[in-house]
Amino acid sequence: MNISSIVVQTRPEYINEVVESLKKCEACEYHLHDEVGRVIVTIEGNGVQEELEKLRVIESIPHVVSADMQMAYSEDELDEHIEVLEDSDIVPKMLNEDIPVEDIVYRGDLKRKNLEGFAKEFDKR
């Protein structure tokens, strides 16, 4: 199952008409809109092809200027990533253990190797 959020753009004078059309449309679920013509909807599909078909339905609604996919969630992709994480040493094994929170020591962002120098520079300011 895939779920994606779509930002639909229309001109402000057509916002009510487009919102009503989206609410009646079986291709998506309406969530909210603003006064400048942006509308947020979500679509669901059993795959990318089904989502693209629903996106085309939204794009064909009168007065829709654009409909752009913003965020996407794919159950299959998530399952694949979880398998990779579980079968590798990417995630430290200690994160899968029950450790009292007060025993966890955070030493900063692992991507930034020179945190001590950074902290000293920051403290000078």
TrEMBL record:
One Pfam family, short name: NapD
Cited InterPro entries: Chaperone_NapD_NO3_reduct
One of the protein's GO biological processes: negative regulation of protein transport
GO molecular-function terms, A-Z: signal sequence binding
Record keywords: Chaperone, Cytoplasm
Family under the similarity heading: Belongs to the NapD family.
Function of the molecule: Chaperone for NapA, the catalytic subunit of the periplasmic nitrate reductase. It binds directly and specifically to the twin-arginine signal peptide of NapA, preventing premature interaction with the Tat translocase and premature export.
Protein's name according to its UniProt entry: Chaperone NapD
Annotated organism of origin: Halarcobacter bivalviorum
Gene that this sequence comes from: napD
